[in-house]
Design goal:
The chain has eight helices and 41 strands. The chain has 740 residues and is mainly beta. The strands form eight sheets. It has a 22-stranded antiparallel barrel. A five-stranded mixed β-sheet has the order 1-6-7-4-5. A hairpin with an 8-residue loop joins β39 and β40. The longest helix has 25 residues.
């Protein structure tokens, strides 16, 4: 029924496009204030801000937006490293900035926090094809300016969804390519009618087999917007979301398998009693739905003041389903997932034999509700700008496990629950930002933020084991900066920012974590002329009790972190844009960094050892990007996009086994468009050749250690292990977009 309603709304919208086109063609043009930018102006920065940042528009990514997730579309930005579990950028993907993973990257959509409150992560697979509904992206590196939600410990990413369209349109785009990848997107807008109203929407579907065996994705998405805009008012009601079903591919492979069969996926393995692999469980999937409902009201009060109210409700629900094989549990994983105790089953005796284990299928659920209200006010008068922001959010997450099937379970009811717990997180925050021009050349910036968080968990986790959290935090995060305008072309800036962040759910499950703290110092120079745009930024990020990645994963692929005392990241980022001729354009970037644990202790072979200074996990010291564009006309363009990522360790102990080799990959993107005389306003053809030179590389992995005290009695030996996520070789996507 829901799908039928969405299709009906879309068809009505497409019909309204034609009706609206007649009215918009003859109406008088009204002067419009850009209220879209006003909506997030308190969270975004500009060229006069003492912050390192990059902007991207929908037009700049349109030719590459053929099905891959948002992190992949942003992968060529400075200091950015992206990953893909399935190996082809569709399904579960991740982003790291300055060595900090997605849990350290604050993400907002129209000023509403998108990071999951408990895990602090961002799961783009829950919003497939969302890039098609985003008008602009801003990635701020470092702590950046104060924002809503999870503290930025490496970067913040601000997304602004599509603006009210002045003109009616309908757009149908589809793409196809390697690994049986198909993408279909249908978009429409009525255009802004004489009454000031607009209705716009999108329906999308992406399917792909993935590069890794059985790493299939089946992704559905929607976006619906109703808006009213006049000279001083913008009101938007949004509904968007997605439903993803992805076969699990977060296990990775060991070094031997990587060398012999790099696409192998061990998920769902089924063995017989003698240990022979007989099959794979066909629904070893992650199945999750997420719906977002937003209301935004932006009002210009007078020439100095404007205010914005944002309301949000997010409803998420779903599970991952997993088959637990008895032979594999006893001989490979050595886990407890097949035991009666783990499943909370009553003892079972068959004849004279007591049964304590059983092969089984489990579903581990997460149902959650997320409520947000934020209020912002902006004041501009002369050289003075004041931004005020306040946020309240409440998250409720129900975690529970269901037994779907068991080979031997005795007297057990269907969907037997073997654990159940609820997490509740409440946050309220407030910030004030004051930017003041001092004379003609100096701009001073002060940013003060107060965050209050309470987090409670009550219940039982799988094991079974009781699990409870009752913690609260108050963080004061000051920021200040100074910008010097040497002339119209040059800006120099210096800034300091303080960030503090609470632990996430996985941190609590694995220990007794404390909050992490960061002092971020940035020094930069911007040069902007028609023949050269250049940004050079140096930074020092000094951490206390950083919750650093250890390299290890929990059973559902969540990274395990630990407090590590003192650590730091320091580096320099260079980004340039320059025309080489009337037809050639070059945009390179380079990030050089040093990322260190300053006094790292590790338990090796039963002895606590001070390793001194070691490399921070997942922090390459060299990251470079490049875009070389040839555009002989306004309708034809060829781009060569390249990315180099230096070697990196997956753990913090500089172990050789944990090292990921460097890699250099290039993509080729070709676009051609024309305006036919009939039927269509525009037709665009796109070709994207990923990994043009067929580089064999690994972008991500995991590293773990454990102590062996049973092989040699009385001797403790530390054993190391690693897994790797191989990426696809040369693969192709071809797309066509029809606009009418």
């Amino acid at each position: 029924m829901k799908r039928k309603m969405q299709v009906t709304l879309l068809l009505v919208g497409v019909l309204a496009v034609r009706l609206a086109a007649q009215t918009t063609a003859v109406r008088d043009s009204l002067p419009m204030v850009n209220l879209e930018e006003v909506k997030v102006s308190g969270l975004r920065v500009d060229a006069d801000s003492p912050v390192a940042f990059s902007n991207l528009t929908q037009e700049e990514i349109a030719s590459r937006n053929l099905g891959q997730d948002i992190p992949i579309l942003l992968s060529f930005l400075p200091s950015v490293v992206t990953t893909s579990d399935a190996g082809n950028g569709i399904g579960y993907t991740g982003i790291r900035v300055r060595g900090s993973d997605a849990r350290a990257v604050n993400v907002t959509i129209n000023g509403i926090p998108y990071n999951d409150s408990e895990s602090q992560g961002t799961f783009w697979v829950n919003l497939p094809d969302f890039a098609s509904s985003v008008s602009s992206f801003q990635l701020q590196r470092g702590v950046g300016t104060s924002t809503n939600g999870n503290a930025a410990f490496g970067a913040s990413l601000n997304l602004l969804t599509q603006a009210v369209s002045e003109d009616a349109f309908a757009r149908w785009s589809q793409s196809a390519g390697s690994f049986n990848t198909l993408k279909n997107t249908l978009q429409f807008s009525t255009g802004r009618l004489d009454s000031g109203f607009e209705i716009a929407g999108r329906l999308g579907k992406i399917v792909s087999d993935g590069y890794i065996d059985r790493a299939a994705s089946d992704l559905k998405s929607y976006f619906l917007q109703a808006a009213y805009q006049d000279d001083n008012t913008l009101i938007k009601v949004l509904g968007f979301g997605g439903h993803e079903v992805t076969y699990q591919s977060w296990y990775g492979v060991d070094a031997a398998t990587l060398a012999s069969n790099r696409t192998y996926n061990p998920a769902g393995e089924i063995y017989d009693a003698n240990g022979a692999l007989t099959d794979f469980y066909d629904t070893q999937v992650d199945n999750y739905r997420q719906d977002h409902y937003q209301l935004h009201w932006t009002q210009t009060l007078n020439s100095r003041w404007d205010v914005t109210l944002g309301l949000n409700y997010t409803y998420g629900r779903g599970y991952y389903e997993e088959y637990y094989d008895l032979w594999a549990t006893n001989n490979i994983s050595f886990g407890t997932d097949t035991s009666f105790a783990y499943l909370q089953l009553l003892p079972l005796t068959v004849g004279t034999t007591e049964v304590t284990q059983t092969e089984n299928i489990q579903r581990k659920w997460l149902d959650n509700d997320y409520y947000v209200a934020n209020l912002a006010a902006n004041y501009i008068q002369g050289g003075t700008t004041i931004n005020l922001g306040a946020l309240y959010s409440r998250y409720i997450g129900d975690h529970f496990g269901e037994l779907i099937w068991a080979q031997q379970a005795g007297d057990v009811l269907p969907r037997h629950r073997f654990y159940d717990n609820t997490g509740t997180k409440i946050e309220n925050s407030f910030f004030v930002k004051w930017t003041e021009s001092i004379g003609d050349q100096w701009i001073a910036y002060i940013d003060l933020q107060l965050r209050n968080i309470s987090y409670d968990v009550v219940g039982q986790v799988a094991g079974p084991a009781p699990f409870s959290v009752d913690d609260s935090f108050s963080f004061f995060n000051p920021k200040a900066g100074l910008t010097f305008r040497a002339n119209e072309a040059q800006r120099f800036y210096l800034s300091y920012a303080r960030a503090q962040r609470e632990p996430n759910r996985t941190d609590y499950e694995n220990g007794n974590p404390v909050p992490e703290k960061l002092n971020d110092f940035e020094l930069g120079w911007r040069y902007n002329q028609s023949n050269l745009q250049l940004q050079v930024n140096a930074y020092l990020m000094a951490y206390k009790d950083q919750l650093a990645l250890t390299g290890a994963l929990d059973e559902v692929g969540n990274p395990i972190r630990e407090n590590i005392g003192n650590s730091r990241r320091m580096g320099i980022e260079i980004e340039a844009k320059l025309p080489l001729s009337t037809q050639w354009f070059w945009q390179p970037n380079l990030a050089l960094s040093r990322n260190q644990n300053l006094d790292y202790f590790f338990q090796r072979d039963g002895q606590l050892t001070n390793l001194g200074s070691t490399q921070l996990a997942y922090s390459p010291s060299i990251i470079a990007g490049n875009a070389l564009v040839y555009a002989p006309s306004t309708t034809f363009q060829v781009s060569l996009l390249s990315k180099y990522v230096g070697e990196q360790y997956m753990g913090n102990i500089d172990a050789a086994l944990s090292k990921l080799p460097n890699y250099f990959v290039s993509d080729l993107n070709i676009t051609y468009q024309w305006q036919p005389e009939q039927w269509f306003k525009n037709i665009q053809l796109s070709l994207l050749v990923n990994n043009l030179f067929n580089e064999t590389y690994v972008s991500n992995g995991y590293f773990y250690t454990y102590d062996d005290s049973w092989t040699t009695p009385g001797v403790v030996s530390t054993i190391e292990g690693a897994g790797f996520y191989p990426q696809a070789g040369t693969n192709v996507l071809v797309g066509v977009a029809l606009i009418f």
